[in-house]
Structures are given as C-alpha cells and as structure tokens.
Amino acid sequence: MITRRTALTGLAALLLPATARGAPTEQLSVAAGNESLSLSRYAAKLTGKRPAVIVLHGSRGIELRQRAYERYADALTAAGIDSYFLHYMTGRDTAALDPKSSTKGSREAYDTGRFDGWSETVSTTVTTILGRADSSGQVGLLGFSLGGFVAANTAARDARIGALAVLYAGMPEAMAGKVKHMPPSIELHGEADQNVSIANGKKLIELARSVGADAEFVPYPGKPHGFDFSDSDPMTSDAIDRVARFFRARLAA
Description:
alpha/beta
C-alpha cells in the first residue's frame, strides 16, 4: 500500500546531493555480432559473493535520463545487489528506432524482429556475470518500456533468471503463446500510460501466474508512461523502493 509517509520519505531521498549518489565502478563489454556493447557495473559495498540485476533501458537509451536509471542502481547496491547497465542496442538498432526518422508502426515491426536477438545478448551477459568470482549465482532482470519487453522475453527463454521486474511493458506477442516458465515477477504500470497500454502489464502477470510463477501487478492511478523518471513525484521513490525490496527478497535472501 502506498502511504503518504512512505512517499514523503522517498521524495526526500530523491533530493540527496549528487555527492551522495553512486557511479559506475567498472566498465565492461559484451559481444553482439560484430559489435561490442557497453556494460556498466555498479557494485554493492559488500565483500564476498553477491547477486546481480541487469538493467535494460527504454528505446531511447540510458543517456536520455541516466540519473533516473541510476536511482535504481543506488537502491539495489544499498540492498547488497550489484547492478549492471547493459546498452543492448546496436548502432543499427538506434538508427531504426530514432523517432525523428521512423514511425510508430516501423518501430514496432522492427522490435518484433529483434526481441530474440536482444534476448540472446542479455543471456550472454548473464553468462558473463555468473562467471565472475563475486557472483552468488543469482541474477535478476529489471526492464523499462522496450527494455521491459526484452527482459520478459529473456526471462521466458532463460531459466537462469531468478527474478523479473518490469516497468510499463509486457511480453512480446510472439513469445506469449510459447511461455512454459517464468521466474517470480513484478510489473509496475501507470494507469494513464498512453505509450504502452496497461493491459500489457496485466497480461504479463496473468501469463506468469498461468505457468506457476509468483507474480504481482502494481498499478499507479493517474500516472503516465515513465512516471518514475520524475525528480519530484513521490511515486518515483515508491516504485524504486518496491523494485529494490522485490529483488532483495528474491535474490539476496
């Protein structure tokens, strides 16, 4: 339940000075065909083996609102979980999805043909993380918008994914009828989302439950697409806190 006290406490956290916030501690790379994609690691300040969460950005990349994504990394690392920001889109992907030179229809068609390829890149990243000496063997996925669809698609394909958190997204239609397994999942969605219908989030959770997964749907009344990227909306902190608590319970318990 979202309470006024929780919202105000979280809002205060959003206003912390920049010096109190985290930054990438390591820059890695992942191969995707002939390209090398960037992987930024935000490490928890703990010794020993730790779980990890791979963060998948929306169609316009992390750079558009990097600080908004980093707030999630701050919360996850504070919970003892390493965060990895994967720039999963190639140069060709970026060009094809540029809103200045494409239409909504062309972008949707392009996405449909790329979901499996993007998921292969995510799974390659999972292999890289699990091979690290500091890995506990537990990996989760956190996806936003397009990245949420990629995360859901990957979780249905890769049984190594221990937990899935999705914001304002769903399961790609081509995968929906093939799903036989899903990890524990949570989906957060603004009820006023005009970019990705809230029906997508509801269907994802229904699908996860249909194959026996523990799954939770969290609606945000009156909130639009990307509501959690606001620097002043108390629901930003609520979403971040829910995601961090979810992964801590599923991966770090």
